[in-house]
Every structure is written in C-alpha cells, then in structure tokens.
Rhamnulokinase
Amino acid sequence: MQYYLGIDIGASSGRHMLGHMENNKIVLEEIYRFENKICRIHEKDCWDIDYLFNEVVKGIKECVRIGKVPVSLSIDTWACDFVLVDDKGNRLCDCVSYRDDWVEGMMEEAFTKMDKRTLYEKTGIQFQKFNTLYQLMALQKENPNILKKAKHFLMVPDYLVYRLTSVFTNEYTNASTTQMVNVHTQTWDKEILHTFHLPSDIFHEFMKPGQVIGGLCEDIQKEVGCNMNVIACATHDTASAYSVVKRRNEAILSSGTWSLLGTILDKPMTCVQAMELNFTNEGAYDGCYRFLKNIMGLWMIQEVRHCLNDEYTFQELVDLAKASDCEPSIINVNDTCFLHPENMIKAIQNYCEKHHENIPKTPGEIAKCVYHSLAVSYREALEELSSLCGKKFDTIHIVGGGCKNTLLNELIEEYTKTTVITGPDEASVLGNIMIQMGGK
Ligand code: ADP
Ligand code: LRH
C-alpha cells in the first residue's frame, strides 16, 4: 500500500491525514489532529510556529508508529503570514498573525508609493489591510535591521518545509496572496519589490504544486525514524481546497475560519469593477486563478464559542440557533470590527445596537444572527460574482469544515436561491494529497 501524508493546518486546527488508493478512489484516514490558535508573543498576536512545527513532527511519528510510512508528505496552511530567516537558517522574527493590528495605516501608506489601481492591475490581489506587503512595511518601520539581515523570505508552509528538509523555497500559490507577485507573469514583481525597498534576493524562484522539494534532513530522519519525499502541494489551503472541485461552472465556497466565495478563471480579472468590489485573483494549482471574495466566515462562531467558554460544540450551537424563534438580527459580517474583537459577542451586540437591530442575547439568538448574516453576505458576494463574470450561478459547491453546518447550508439555499452541493469537509487535505499523487 502506498500512503501519502497530507498535513493541513488551518487557523483553528491542524491535521495529518493519510491517503491511499482503493478501487480507484482516494481513501482518507485521520492520523493526528492538533489545535491552532493565535497567541500573544512579544506583545503581538502571533502563531506559535515552533509549536506548530513540533506538532507536524509528532504527526509524522504517529504514522511511523502505526506502521503506515508514507512515500511523501506535503503541507498546506493559511496564507498571508511569513517569517524571515538569516544566512544560518535562524528565524529572525515571530510569525505575526494577519489579525494583529501592526498593519494599521500601512495600506494607505502603500498607495502613496504605488497607486491602488496599478497595484491591483499588477497583482490582481484584494485590498486587505493584512496583506503580506503591508505586514512587511510594518516590519520595516518597526525594525529595519531584520530585513537587512534576512536571507530568506518564507511563507508559513515554506518555513515548516525548510525545517523538515533544510531547503529554502517559495511555493507559488501561497506567495500569490502577498500582493507582491505579478498576476500575469506569475513571478515576483520586481517593480513592487523595488518601490517598497524590499531586497529582491530574499524572494526565491517559485516551486509549483507537484514539484518534489527534497527528502527529510538528517536530524528529522533520525527523529521520525524514516525518510520520505517532501512535495509542494498548492500550499495555500484555499488553493488546495478549491482544487477538489472539478467543474468550472459553479460557484465555490470554501467554508472554514474564512468563507472564500468565488470561482475558477482561466485568465485574471483586474478591471476597475473587480477592484472596487475587492475580488481577488489568487494562484490556483494548475496555473489558473481563484477569483473570489474573502468573507469573515466561521471565525465569528469560533469566537462566539470561545466567549461561551467552549461550553457548546459547533453542532450544539447550530441546534440552539434552529430552536431560537426570534427574528434574526442581520449584521455586516465583513465590518472590520469583527476581524479581531476582544469579545465577539459584545462586538455583535454593539453592532446591532448601533444599527438598530434587535440585540441577540442567548447563545441561540447570537448563533442565529451569525448564520443568517453569513448567508446574506454570501448572497451579496454571489450577486457581485455573477455581475463580474456575466453569468448566473445556479449551484454553490461548499467544501471545508463549514459544510457540516446543515442549518447554514439550508440558509444559503434559501437566501441565494441556488442549489447547494456539499463536501468534502476535508477539502484542503484531499487537494493536498491529490496533488502529491500527481492526479491534478
Ligand atoms: P480552518 O481549516 O479554516 O481552521 P475548518 O475547515 O476546519 O477550518 O472548519 C472549521 C469550522 O467548521 C468550524 O469553525 C465550525 O464552524 C465548522 N464545523 C466543524 N464541525 C462542525 C459540525 N459538526 N457542525 C457545524 N459546524 C461545524
Ligand atoms: C483561509 C485563508 C484565506 C486567506 C486567509 C488569511 O484559511 O488562507 O484564503 O485569505 O486564510
């Protein structure tokens, strides 16, 4: 039996899954799962990247322990965040999360160096205040020496791969979200790097999904007790997730911590309308483009759940919302006040008060408000997508953990008047493994 190990780390959890072929179908088996969350490190909201790396190794060891040694592995994670490494391979900075406020004001400052339209025409990337470009500007401002010492710019999966293999690479799909990659040439945009005083030699030539990066380095081989190939999948989780949907004519919703609603295009769309509606053209696994909109997503319910001391499961919150008979309050989930509030329930209630909506109080009322408001935002995004693409989408294909939310699936059908197709809920890891198998 040939096993392939997909390691998918989302903002809320990471998992190791083994895939193998059986009767012409890929069979997935979950081997290891671990929590991921934002941590306060050196007064910033960060990812605990050393903890994540240790978890990556633990999961590989678990495969070995149960006697299912994979022929290869690949890692995908969320996008936008990075670390810098020096010539000796030492990490020079923490892995700051895209939710930290160090980027405040950077996007506006960026437009004084390169106008918004040029930046969008060149990169096709949406304007989110946490884009890597703006994070690098924040770093430059805070500690210019770090960039001076840096030899390697690595996105999160690139760094984890480096720790496993000692190879420095940049994988294309994840890098495409940085707003520093030219959407037409699919290479680092030299003019952008120059304009923002970024040293071009720290950005490596791209690995494309499917390429073999190398074997495990000696230390890791000793630790896990075997060797295997490390392959670049589409290391952006959303790219891997979208890659499992084969049909091109339906709208796709990758539903997890973020909701990513869009479609696959052969050519990027960088017209003024797409820019004004803040659609993004991210690199897909096959050289095409994921044309989509970022919607705040199930982060809202994850945070509501934490505010309730994790007393309820996701399923219980769905059940409570179903049982609630109040009129749902509707909020704009994409309001920046929901990006990283201290207390999500209070943020929702304050928003409702300010916008003359009924204030949801019970867990059921709050969950109902979130699910209905998400469905409303999907309807709006779908209308925008239709108008930009000049076609009507009759079907939405939902993948990712969020497709297990039956109430939300029903609401999406009701609000968008489309047919909803669901699954797989582990789309990123499946896409990751399919690319390793060379099936893409
Ligand atoms: P990410 O990879 O972005 O961290 P996932 O794809 O793992 O996210 O999806 C996590 C989300 O899936 C949770 O926030 C939760 O809302 C939803 N979810 C998972 N299981 C269930 C369930 N049984 N019922 C309803 N929702 C669920
Ligand atoms: C989803 C995701 C999304 C990015 C965001 C930072 O996990 O990768 O595609 O915009 O995280």
Residues 142 and 284 are 33 Å apart (CA to CA). The two ends are 20 Å apart (CA to CA). Residues 245-423 form a domain with the Nucleotidyltransferase; domain 5 fold (CATH 3.30.420.40). The chain has 17 helices and 21 strands.
